[in-house]
Amino acid sequence: MREPERDLSRLEDILSAIINVEEYTKDLSEVQLKGDKLRLHATIYNVQIIGEAVYKLTKDFKQEHPDTPWHLIEKMRHILVHDYFRINFEILWIIIKEDIPLLKEQVTKYMSELTEG
Questions:
Q1: Cα–Cα distance measured from residue 23 to residue 106, given in angstroms and rounded to the nearest whole number
Q2: Whether residue 6 has pLDDT greater than 90
């Protein structure tokens, strides 16, 4: 598979997981999400998917788009998968409400660049 096609596929995975996170957390407060194990676990799973897809983006692509904190996204995935007992819910909530919307904008832009280029 050519590298730009691979990156586009990974960006599509990221966008799909972002849409899932938005759907699962829509109209919920932090307390409501924390109390809804099904939605919470589905949200965590999709944040993991985002991190894994970021990990699989090519090094060149990530270097060409330094505005996105790729390393931090990968690190979050690592914590959610391997250090699940250390998950800080307050940080997860900030990621959901602040970082995910910004990442969605960036990923959408990057996808446009790849499809138009």
A1: 19
A2: yes
Rounded Cα–Cα distance for residues 26 and 43 (Å): 11
What was the pLDDT predicted at 117? 64
Report how far residue 71's alpha carbon sits from residue 69's, in angstroms, rounded to the nearest whole number: 6
**What CA–CA distance (Å, rounded) separates 44 from 114?**
28
Catalytic residue status for 2: no
Q: Is 77 a catalytic residue?
A: yes
Among residues 10, 39, 71, 82, the one annotated as catalytic is 82
Burial class of 116 by CB neighbour count within 10 A (0 to 12, 13 to 18, 19+)? exposed
pLDDT, position 83: 76
